[in-house]
Design a protein that fits this description.
- By secondary structure, the chain is of the alpha+beta class.
- It folds into two domains: 140 residues; 80 residues, no CATH class.
- It is built from nine helices and four strands.
- Helix 1 packs antiparallel against helix 4.
- The termini are far apart.
- It binds iron/sulfur cluster (2 copies).
């Protein structure tokens, strides 16, 4: 990796993006390539796809609690960072933002390919280091021969090594199951009840022992929990 690419990655890390992957589509399995093509994404092998994620509280702390400058401050911050790293470190050129945005890009599949995410009974992925305390923040494409960063070695899901599986007993709705898929309907119904104990937090997630050092602080937890509840309420009314 050349020095300017390396400096760009280091700068991104200072901004709170402690998960970064540079990928080429011809490395992807066929299913992932097809999913991206279904989204009308150009996956020519000359392009590079850069995915940014944030584990724990670092990116939140970068925002400094300033959530007032847009409806989606984390998205705005992440898109601005994507533009800046390309302009200031990676030689400029056009940046196609694929996420955040309206395109339903397969982030979970990309996360699994990048080794960030593994199957869990919680209905979303789990990271070996951060547990469930991480989020996808940006995916963008550019025509620039950046060196790929993805390691193809899989470490398996930490859930296989979790003997007691406390996430199951912590869920008051019985939505978290082992050897059965997550029961989204039960979870949503419980969250939408008046004065639900899960209105702004997931007790199963909080009970998981993996990545506890990276657990979100109370303000971050409530912010994300309330946004997700609001989006469920909107969908119920549609
Ligand atoms: S509590 Fe155990 S089984 Fe449940 S998500 Fe965490 S690691 Fe996986
Ligand atoms: S939000 Fe509540 S109901 Fe849904 S999975 Fe988490 S603990 Fe269970």
């Amino acid at each position: 990796m050349n020095l300017s690419q390396q400096r760009g990655h280091e700068w991104l890390a200072t901004q709170g993006f402690n998960l970064q992957a540079v990928m080429r589509a011809d490395q992807w399995p066929q299913r992932l390539r097809q999913s991206m093509e279904d989204c009308q994404v150009n996956i020519e092998s000359s392009r590079r796809f850069v995915m940014l994620g944030a584990g724990g509280r670092l990116l939140w702390e970068q925002l400094g609690g300033d959530l007032t400058d847009s409806d989606h401050p984390l998205d705005t911050f992440s898109v601005n960072a994507a533009g800046r790293v390309v302009t200031e470190y990676w030689g400029g050129g056009e940046v196609e933002i694929l996420y955040p945005g309206p395109i339903p890009v397969p982030l979970q599949q990309l996360g699994m390919f990048a080794g960030w995410s593994h199957v869990s009974p919680l209905g979303f992925g789990i990271n070996t280091e951060f547990g469930t305390w991480f989020a996808y923040r940006a995916l963008f494409a550019l025509d620039n021969p950046l060196q790929e960063t993805v390691s193809l070695a899989s470490q398996g899901t930490p859930c296989d090594r979790c003997v007691e599986k406390p996430c199951r007993s912590a869920c008051p709705a019985g939505a978290v199951r082992w050897h059965k898929s997550f029961d989204l309907g039960r979870c949503v119904s419980h969250r939408l009840k008046s004065a639900s104990s899960c209105a702004d937090r997931c007790h199963a997630r909080l009970a998981c022992p993996v990545g506890q050092d990276w657990r979100y602080g109370e303000d971050q937890l409530v912010y994300h929990g309330q946004r997700s509840l609001a989006s469920l309420q909107v969908r119920r009314e549609e």
